[in-house]
Amino acid sequence: MAEYFKNNKSKRLEIRMTPEEAQNLEECAELMHVHRTDVLNMGVRLVRERLSASGRKKAVEESFAMRVEQAANLARQIASIQLALFHALYEKPTQSKAEYADAFAALNDMTTDLKSDLRALTDDIFARKRAEILSLQIDGGGNMKS
């Protein structure tokens, strides 16, 4: 008896429906062998699941955008180092081949870690996009379902 009071449904809701909507609700209830309230509750749960899924999708999209921005920043840092080296070499055109080789080795050392980070980020970005594309579903009308 205590269980009855614990799960007591005390809230009421009156809704307006067109005759067609009321008929659809009735048919769903009959086909599933449940009450109309149960059909409505199932619909609410489906909507909540979809909203939760779209919330997750938004978080994934924001994370993806952040990773793309990180990759762009790394690429800018690499370009900035390369440009600085180019200017340094241009200002001293009398340097020997050994000095140029040393300067390029220094550039390589400075950018190796950045390039590795950039490669890892772009691999992650492509993997995420591929997973997103593979997870898309197409319904019978040719439309994408989320």
Description:
By secondary structure, the protein is mostly helical. It has one domain. It is 78% helix and 3% strand. Helix 2 crosses helix 3 and helix 3 runs antiparallel to helix 4. The longest helix has 56 residues. It is rod-shaped.
Q: What can be said about this structure in brief?
A:
A hairpin with a 5-residue loop joins β1 (137-138) and β2. The model has no long low-confidence stretch (mean pLDDT 76). This protein has helices at 2-6, 19-32, 36-91, 97-135; strands spanning 137-138, 144-145.
Number of domains: 1
Question: What profile does the largest beta sheet have?
Answer: 2 strands, antiparallel
Order of helices and strands: HHHHEE
Q: Outline, from the CA principal axes? A: rod-shaped
Number of helices: 4
State Rg: 30 Å
**Number of beta-strand segments:** 2
Distance between the termini: 43 Å
Question: Which class of secondary structure composition applies to the elements?
Answer: mainly alpha
Q: How confident is the prediction overall: mean pLDDT?
A: 76
* Share of residues in strands: under 5%
* Helicity level: over 70%
